[in-house]
Design a protein that fits this description.
about 550 residues, mainly beta, Tachylectin-2, Chain A, Jelly Rolls, 3 domains, five-stranded mixed sheet, 41 strands, about 5% helix, globular, binds beta-D-fructofuranose
């Protein structure tokens, strides 16, 4: 009797405590497009859970604001219309009652018009972005997937965000493509179109876009696949995931960022995967079963591997292998093994990281186009990071050997309108001409300088050294650079200035770099050439259109 009583009491206490825990939950019947959630960076992260009919729909970490929101994030809940979501949160739950649904994102009216929103670079509406993922052209659309934390402007909850474009310049952000699952969070990867249905995912005329990506958990990183039959809008994860689990082989958790492409001569798929101390090559006939082939040490994260014509000559090609820093080796590749012939070299430095090139660009176009993550912040904004300008990569023979060059794709020209053009000016005259173009907004300045002494010269913007060429040490903004003709005393720079970033292309893309724009607001000098008696041989100024 006593034990039954005790059991009853126990059950009652349990039910009561469950009710207490549940009392803080909120339930919302979805009849709008978005759920808006308040965030404050000062709050510690808690786990939020959406439950529908007793089943977990998603879980993520968020710093729910208990007082005034610092900024708002959102969930697109269009697919959940008519359903009731129970939302629970194990952090400070005071903010729960401020979550609300609406057909507009909180802040929609000022979207893309915010003070520090880049005007000609892709940024996410809300949250943190890092690596570009799954860059692919398919049926008239360029796809940009990207590492995204939709719920905060710092790294967490890794998901694949998604945007599409007709020209790689104007982007439309779409709902999240891949969200964390019970294997872990969605790390970087790539996409292909399975024209021959090798994986068996195609349905009739609908070809599968197949994504290969890393899923990260606390103790390992495994490779997985998912496919989309509607041009990347919705995704089905393969039920045989993971397809590669190589932690034990490498005795390391660092096995990630699969980059897959079709190797035409051998008629098979190739995956290049970063494993611990370098890039591995795997082969597959069906995108599901992969066999390890070879390994090239000396690279970290985000591999890429592709073939390029040398000097535009289709009878002369080289393969290029890159890591996350964009340092590279050139060499040969037979489908199984990369044999380096030179390297490592750099062609771009600064805020760029984890760049990737597009897959499936039509042969008639034939360009190798790269987009890199710009590690750039935007003061006071509810988003972080950006994508740098897409650039075309080419191999050219230089005095030092075959080297990579990169220049903004021709599609970017639509953004710029020439507003001033001069030749052979003194620095003083050039500075006078530039006065009326001083701006906190975007501008492009193209110039060629001739130095009179082998010392330093350059161009500032409100005190920030956009170009600082030191010919004594052969440094540009601190990085070694020697022009093709070292005795010319000349240097050219094409400088793209957005509200928060600066990208500079030296000598037609022989070297380029990017940085956060950090103009000193008290420095009224504006655009300003400096150096010992330099000549501004060429100067062009362009106004910039917004892509939004
Ligand atoms: C590079 C990286 C990748 C990884 C991703 C996680 O920036 O560390 O190696 O897949 O970011 O967000």
């Amino acid at each position: 009797m006593k034990t039954i009583f005790k059991m009853m009491l126990g059950i009652c206490t349990l039910v009561a405590s469950l009710q207490v825990a549940a009392a803080a939950d909120i339930a919302i019947k979805i009849n709008k497009r978005y759920l808006n959630l308040p965030v404050a960076q000062t709050q510690t992260r808690g786990n939020m859970k959406f439950v529908i009919n007793g089943k977990q729909e998603r879980t993520f970490k968020i710093r729910l604001a208990k007082g005034e929101a610092e900024y708002w994030v959102y969930c697109d809940v269009t697919a959940l219309r008519g359903k009731t979501i129970t939302i629970s949160y194990d952090g400070d739950e005071a903010g729960l009652k401020k979550i609300y649904q609406n057909d507009e994102i909180e802040g929609q009216k000022t979207m893309y018009k915010e003070l520090n929103r880049p005007q000609f670079h892709f940024t996410a509406k809300r949250g943190w972005i890092n690596d570009p993922n799954g860059l692919i052209f398919y049926e008239g659309e360029y796809h940009l997937f990207f590492q995204h934390n939709p719920y905060e402007k710092e790294w967490e909850n890794m998901s694949w965000g998604h945007a599409v474009s007709k020209d790689m310049i104007h982007w439309e952000e779409l709902p999240t493509a891949l969200s964390p699952d019970n294997l872990g969070t969605m790390y970087s990867g790539s996409t292909v179109i399975d024209y021959d249905n090798t994986a068996g995912f195609n349905k009739g005329k609908n070809l599968a876009m197949v994504a290969t990506y890393t899923v990260a958990s606390d103790d390992k990183q495994v490779q997985c696949v998912a496919y989309s039959l509607d041009k990347g809008r919705t995704w089905t994860k393969y039920d045989g995931n993971p397809i590669i689990d190589s932690k034990e082989k490498w005795n390391s958790v660092d096995t990630r960022d699969p980059r897959v492409f079709w190797y035409k001569p051998g008629k098979h798929w190739v995956m290049i995967l970063n494993e611990r101390d370098g890039h591995s090559i795997y082969n597959s006939s069906n995108l599901k079963e992969w066999s390890f082939q070879t390994h090239t040490t000396g690279f970290w994260e985000c591999p890429d591997l592709f073939e390029l014509f040398v000097d535009g000559d289709s009878s002369k090609t080289k393969w290029v292998m890159l890591g996350a820093s964009n340092t590279y080796m050139t060499g040969n590749f037979d489908g199984r093994k990369f044999t380096p012939e030179s390297g490592k070299h750099y062609f771009v430095t600064g805020s760029i990281y984890a760049a990737q090139t597009f897959t499936n660009i039509p042969e008639a176009d034939g360009r190798r186009i790269q987009i890199g993550w710009g590690k750039i912040g935007h003061a006071g904004m509810p988003f972080n990071g950006m994508m740098l300008l897409p650039t075309e990569l080419t191999l050219k023979t230089t005095r030092d050997g075959i080297r990579l060059f990169s220049e903004p794709i021709k599609e970017s020209n639509q953004l710029f309108e020439s507003v001033g053009e001069w030749k052979n000016l003194t620095a003083k005259d050039a500075n006078e001409k530039l006065k009326k173009y001083n701006t906190n907004d975007g501008i492009r300045v193209k110039t060629k300088l001739k130095l009179s002494h082998a010392t330093s010269a350059g161009l500032n913007l409100f005190g920030q050294r956009m170009l600082d060429y030191d010919m004594n040490y052969n440094l540009i903004n601190g990085v070694f650079y020697a022009p093709e003709d070292m005795t010319s005393m000349e240097i050219s720079a094409d400088i793209y200035v957005d509200r928060t970033s600066i990208e500079v292309f030296i000598d037609s893309g022989a070297y380029s770099y990017s940085m956060e724009r950090k103009s000193d607001s008290k420095n009224m000098e504006g655009l300003h050439f400096w150096g010992n008696n330099i000549e501004v041989k060429e100067l062009q100024v362009y106004s910039v259109k917004s892509i939004w």
